[in-house]
Amino acid sequence: MLDIQAVALAAILSGVCALPAAGEPGIATTYNTYGYPGLIDMPSAHSRPDAELALNVSHFRNTTRTTLTFQITPRLSGSFRYSNLYELKGPSPGAPVRDFIYDRSFSLHYRFLDETRRRPAVAVGLNDFFGTGIYQSEYLVASKTVHPSVRVTGGIGWGRLGSAGSFRNLLSYVLGSRMDTRPGRLGDEGSKLEAQNWFRGPAALFGGVEWQASDRLKLTAEYSSDVYPQEDGIAFERRIPVNMGATYRLRPGAHLSLNYLHGSELGVNLSLALNPKDPPNGGARDKAPPPVVARTPDAAQLGWAPKDVKGDDLSERATRALAAIDLELHSLRITGDTARVVFRGTSRTRSGQDIGRTARVLTGILPPAIETFEIVPMVSGLTPTQVTLNRSDLEALEYEFDSSWSSYARARIDSLERVVPLPTDTYPIFRPGFGPYLQPALFDPDEPVRLDFGIEARATLEPARGLIFRGAVRKRLVGNLDGSTRPSDSVLPHVRSDFALYDREGDPAIIELTGAQYFQPSRDLYGRVTLGYLEPMFGGLSAELLWKPLNSRFGFGVELNYVRQRDFNQLFGFRDYRVPTGHATGYWQFDNGYHLRVDAGRYLAGDWGTTIALDREFKNGWKVGAFATFTNVSASEFGEGSFDKGIVVTIPIDWISGEPTRDDFTTVLRPVQRDGGARLEVAGRLYETVRGLRGRDLQNNWGRFWR
Predict the structure, then answer these.
(1) Averaged over 627-649, what is the pLDDT?
(2) Residues 264-311: pLDDT tens digits?
(3) Which of 66, 70, 244, 401 has minimal CB crowding within 10 Å?
(4) Nearby residues of 211 by Cβ (< 8 Å), 6 or more positions away
């Protein structure tokens, strides 16, 4: 039957996913029933727009697939699929029929040739290369537009896509007879990279035609090379290898397809897509930026002696002006013709805007004799960067065509050699918060959607510079996170696999209760020490050092922790399990927003290994990435899934609301949560704290300087 919870998830996301966007000219490339660019069941060679993130839900008799697909680059897309399968044949001849399973699988689709007047687009793909192997297949496909409204597709498939009308593998004529046989799976743990099977065994042809009947309606017919070997004859009856479908564009980014499959079944396919590059409502709803107040040519040049003006009229006026645009003044000091201002910004992704607005506020407050502005953004008591601007440049560039680039080229950006002093009356600072929270758990082995909704009280107290106390308490109002009944069968210490017990007993729960001290030992070096209830499952001591040169793509950090497992009720008690853990971490920044992080060290279960994470981050703070952890725990010890891996999606709240805030929503999609490769979660780690004010991150955010 149709998975109601998966459809509910699609409905929840549709309000965000179906965003205003440009129309889709020509023949629309849509998502197939497996959730990647294709016809109906079969793939095509074209791609969706760069950076698009799509949720696709398809259903026909006894099969429901929910797929999250991200267009990683203009040519490469990746998909994570969660399938509900009823009445499935066993994995080997004679094995009993499986009444029901949840299956998780990954796909990659790479377009290596673009379509031209003479040449089709050509793509290659891998299906279920990490997973149980039910959908394991590979393909090479070409698509060509033969009329402004007609496109034809043809391809060759292996594995499951080589099971209907198969013939000898053509690669065997080039690479030898070993390509004629497909070795099969090497084990039952799942999530192994079964590369020995790729493009091997019998092959088969598939193809189809798409007709864009109108700007909203597309009709598709295809010849399928998939015999559905584990479903046919039990889950449904496959009569012919032909599928037909109609796809209707409900609105930009939202498509609904009705399909007639295998000569016997009706199916439905709904896709909802958004692009992180295109915020809803056209962008931010910031307060109006202050103008540059230009000096008159004959303004009197006043002489100013060095003095701290904190508390006098100038400082009070600056405090009020910055507060009006959601910025927080910490100090204003004038020395000769130079003013230095230290302030707290709105968010990491708006650092360029915050600096620009601060500079414009100063032009309307400071006397004409002040020519140089030294602007120092502060975060968690740290001052990673000083930006020096000439007032005359601001006056000259405000209305220039290339004002953002010119202002960046004329600015001087430096690392500070010593901590900038602050007036004694800057602290304490108290920031309370209260509101709703939403905590999802998506695509676990027992349930596609688990979700809790409740209220959260959160507060931050800074009694002195760099000393930060944080606390958060949650009370669930409604949800089903506590509904999991699967007991942990892990042979490792249960550092994560008892999550169901924490969800069931932690109501209300102390999510975080910590004290942290941040400090700067020297230029480009930052430190943090945090003590307390660090996360819902562990508390203890965490210490970190980060070296992040100003203009380098590289950063390096070391973190050491000694923690103890918390009680399941997530209040003040602890369990007996204690463990020292820590990592050395390398960070690399590439072009186009790609970030690579490599962690090496000891994990919570006492295992040693490495985590590799690759993210793509956009200038507005959106982040989509994937990670994999490999430790000295064997696949059999780890259990289902073989090793820890997943997809991470971070959505900045200000992207949705348009209002400036540091908050974001992050969810991790794992095929299964186990104990191997589990890392401690600590709020306020240094790299994410300081990098928005350093080097390439600051440069990337500078485009908002005049906003």
Answers:
(1) 87
(2) 999 999 999 999 887 765 555 667 788 898 888 765 454 444 444 444
(3) 401
(4) 149, 150, 218, 219, 220
pLDDT digits (tens, 9 = 90+) for 384-440: 999 999 999 999 988 887 888 889 899 999 988 777 778 777 889 999 999 898 888
The residues of the chain that CATH labels 3.30.300 are 307-425
The values of phi and psi at residue 412, to 5°, are: -110, 125
| Closest among 547, 578, 574, 576 to 561, alpha carbons compared | 578
Q: Show the tokens assigned to 524.
A: 């480009």
Residues in the chain: 707
Q: Helix 351-363 to helix 313-323 angle, to the nearest 10 degrees?
A: 140
**Dihedral in degrees, nearest 10, Cα atoms 658, 662, 664, 668:** 150
Among the listed residues 242, 92, 244, 231, the one whose alpha carbon sits nearest the alpha carbon of residue 165: 242
Strands across the sheet containing 307-308:
307-308, 328-335, 338-344, 372-378, 386-390, 412-414
Which among 634, 674, 669, 680 has a CA at the least distance from the CA of 498? 674
Q: Distance from CA of residue 373 to its chain's centroid? A: 36
pLDDT tens digit sequence for 454-476 = 999 999 999 999 999 999 999 99
E strand map for 548-593: 554-566, 574-589
Q: Residue 308 contacts by C-beta under 8 Å, 6 or more apart in sequence?
A: 333, 423
Cis peptide before 384 (omega within 30 of 0): no
DSSP states of 82-151: EEEEEEE--SSTTPPPEEEEEEEEEEEEEEEE---SSS-EEEEEEEEEEESSTT-EEEEEEEEEEETTEE
9 phi/psi in degrees, rounded to 5: -60, -40
CATH of 307-425, one of 3.30.300, 3.30.1340, 3.90.75, 3.40.109: 3.30.300
In single-letter form, the type of residue at position 526 comes to Y
Q: Detail the DSSP E strand segments found in 641-684.
A: 644-652, 664-669
- The class level of CATH for 427-697 reads mainly beta
Rounded Cα gap, residues 246 and 259, in angstroms: 6
Mean pLDDT in residue range 656-662: 66
Given a contact cutoff of 8 angstroms between Cβ atoms, the answer to whether 394 and 363 are in contact is yes
Reported in sequence order, the residue ranges of 213-253 that DSSP labels E, i.e. its strands, are 217-223, 242-251
The single residue listed with the structure tokens 């090379």 is 225
Residue 448 has pLDDT above 80, yes or no: no
| Cβ-based neighbour number of residue 663 at 10 Å | 12
Q: Please state the separation of Cα 527 from the chain's center in Å.
A: 26
Task: Quickly tell me which residue has 């009569």 as its tokens.
Answer: 239
Instruction: Decide: helix, strand or coil at residue 689.
Output: helix
Tens of pLDDT along 319-362?
A: 899 988 889 999 899 988 999 999 998 777 788 889 999 999 99
Report the distance separating Cα 598 and Cα 615, nearest Å. 12
Residues of the chain with CATH 2.40.160.40: 4-19+30-91+98-275
List of residues 6+ apart from 591 with CB closer than 8 A = none
pLDDT of residue 298: 64
- Smallest CA-to-CA distance from 581 within 513, 651, 515, 675 is with 675
Name the CATH superfamily housing domain 4-19+30-91+98-275: monomeric porin ompg (2.40.160.40)
Alpha carbon separation from 80 to 38, 64, 630, 638 (Å, rounded): 16, 14, 20, 21
Cα gap 534→679, rounded to integer Å: 12
Contacts 24+ apart (CB under 8 A), 435-440: 437/474, 438/665, 439/479, 439/481, 440/667
Q: Answer whether 627's CB lies under 8 Å from 612's CB.
A: yes
Burial (CB count within 10 angstroms: exposed 0-12, middle 13-18, buried 19+), residue 76: middle
**Residue 386: which H helix or E strand, with range?**
strand 386-390
pLDDT higher than 80, residue 184: no
